[in-house]
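Posting this for the archive.
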Amino acid sequence: MKIRPLHFFIFWLVLNLVQAAFTELTSDEAYYWFYSRSLEWGYYDHPPFIALMVRLGYALFPNELGVRLVNVILNALSVLLLFKLVPREPRRDTLLCLMVLSLPLLNYLAFIIFPDGPLLFFFVLFLLGYKRFLEKEDLPAVLLLGFSTALMMYSKYHGVLVVGFTVLSHLRLLRSPRFWLSMVLALVLFLPHLAWQYAHQFPTFQFHLKGRTTAFTTRYLLEYVSQQLPAIGPGLLFIPFVYRTRERFERALQLICLGTFGFFLFTALKAFVHFHWTSIALFPLLLLAARFYEEEKRRKLFHFLVLPLAFAVVVLRLYLMFRIFPVNHLNVDYYHGRKLWAEDIERVAGDRPVLFGDNFRESSLYSFYSGHTGVALQSGERRQSQYELWNYEDGLQGREVVLIQDRPFAGSTELRTRMDKTVHYFIAPAFSSYYDIPVEVVFPPSVKSGDTVPVAVKVSNPRTTALRFERAGFPRAPALFYVIRKDGQEVHRGTLEVFPEDAVIPPGGQREFTASLQLPALEEGAHTVGFGVRYEPLLDAYNAKAREFRVGR
């Protein structure tokens, strides 16, 4: 059976357009749609290209298809361009088509929008530029390398891994002035995003380099390995480890694969690795596998290891469009019923803003499917979100707000939605929150275990409205809390009632409060203490930087 690349491109494009139109948005996709409401050079979690994609498609079709439209087109084009990277031969073309259809992760990324979608398209352009660069270091190759590198980085920072592993596969590139010219071009094109990061104090870099990491653990490592096998499949995963490269371009493909798997294996020792983060290995894997399986003696291996996954992919695609399995993972069906869920919450909320705690994905889903305001506010201890960068918190102050949480809390009412997800809601008549309020605390540098420590607290109000500390219908009034840690581990947590309910801080003003903190029995040595505002049932707001102190005899 011969499959022509152009015919496969049309089939792949139509298949994924249909899938995109009949599959509800996932939570990440809704968050990217939220990005697209205001185009900028950067966002809290990602570079800006994904927001531009959604903005363009949604302008044509204001529905799920519009959100995914550009991603589907770019994915189909990237698969078409893939055929230009292998010597043309009918059997090899057919193998490539069958492997595309049988690769679960690629099928998922073909219509579900992630930053990996545009990353893969510009990655193929990079490979085309690099292949030309190896043949003749001319100006078109330099320009293609430079532009594709910049656009990979505008899609997802993993693009730097592509460039790094390519250079490692051919270190003589570092001696080439034209290669350096292409990288300078990429850097110049990327400067607007770097300027945005600088203006916002590098939130994305800090989050990815610090906010995701934890102590060393094997749990993430086991999850990483267990996810990659079904995402890529046993028929492809082993190929870069056994394939014998024939020339420099293939060596680059092999090292990109091995380097990607190794890099995220190491990352999994300190952070959770999402299954799609290895996406940059997919196209190199396909190119190497097309050469590996073209030999007649490996045909049975191909039929046994690769083709059976095509059935699993069909089932996956059908499940994402239609709920053929009653899956309800952790009280959430990630792919079905969100429109009904939003309608049920809207019946309670009406036109009021709905606050989903720190769940910025669900707040975006609610906004997409209801057309009303959904907001998330992060505690500030580990990360923030785009809602903080756009200062959504200040717009809620003093308004009647519906608070939604997964677990019951004092004064809440249970709501069983039609997507089989139970939520608990509370209507706050005059909402207040304190996540963006600066708090300065004077704490002695050395104390004794069990001491009573005087604490001076200064609260500033950067808002344009007055800051109040009333209970305002909540179970308890706002209070100052503290957390003591030793070697990064929490050893004590307590609350200080220092804010009088009649206290008011005018816009731009400050006010000082005093309290006495009764220390518990603490070990000798270095500790840290952090302070913030507790206003239950909202998550604790970490408003002050942790201060170091020592416990002595």
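Residues 177-199 form the longest helix (23 residues). The chain has a mean pLDDT of 91.
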